[in-house]
Structure formats: C-alpha cells, structure tokens
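ARCHIVE CARD
Drawer: 12
Card no.: 0347
Subject: one protein chain, sequence and derived structure
Cross-reference: see card 0346
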Amino acid sequence: QVQLVESGGGSVQAGGSLRLSCGISGDALNSYCLAWFRQVSGKKREGVGSINSDGDTTTYLDSALGRFTVSQDYAKNILYLQMNSLKPEDTAMYYCAIKGGRYCGDVDWTYTYWGQGTQVTVSS
C-alpha cells in the first residue's frame, strides 16, 4: 500500500504560480512512476506530467511544456508540480498518482494509487 497526500492548491490570478506537493508514504517500490493528473468536473482526467524513479525521464502535457515542472525530493519523499504562467484553463482538481514499473505515460487507469486531490483555480 502507498499513501499519497496532495497540498498546495489554491486560487491565483492568470500569470501567477503555484507549487503543488504530494507526500508519499507506505510500501517502497524499486521502480516506479509518479505523475500528476487533473480533472475538471464532467471532463476526462488528463495527465499533466510524470517522472520516473530514476528522475531522468519526465513527460508533460503539451500545454504544460515550458510552464510546469515535475520533480521529486527523494529525501523527503515528496513529488512536486511547479506551475508557472498559469492560465484559466489550468483550473482543475489536481491529483498525484504512482505505479510500479519503468514506463510512465499519461494513461490514468495504469496508475495504482491516488491522492485525494487539491483544487487549483486560476482567474482571468
């Protein structure tokens, strides 16, 4: 079992920044992928970015490239999502997720454990 707890969401004006955190606890995985997803009510959940356990491979949603950065603090067991130049269309509930294995990707059903989510609201 792995537990994930997100924090850092809030309300910000367009052009602003937020850093989301995801605390990770529970069973250790030798090889894993961590990812951020977001979902707007009534719409499909989409992958925002992911990072592998080695920290040498990241993937991003096209609209997040150059604005969002996924990183991991191994000592603290925290996953981060630094979001800059936020836009109103970034408004969503943001979730972190983890799965075992080497291939990360953005397919939500392949991820095993999920956090409860943190709301991000960007006003124009």
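Annotation on reverse: The two ends are 40 Å apart (CA to CA). The first strand starts at residue 2 and ends at 7.
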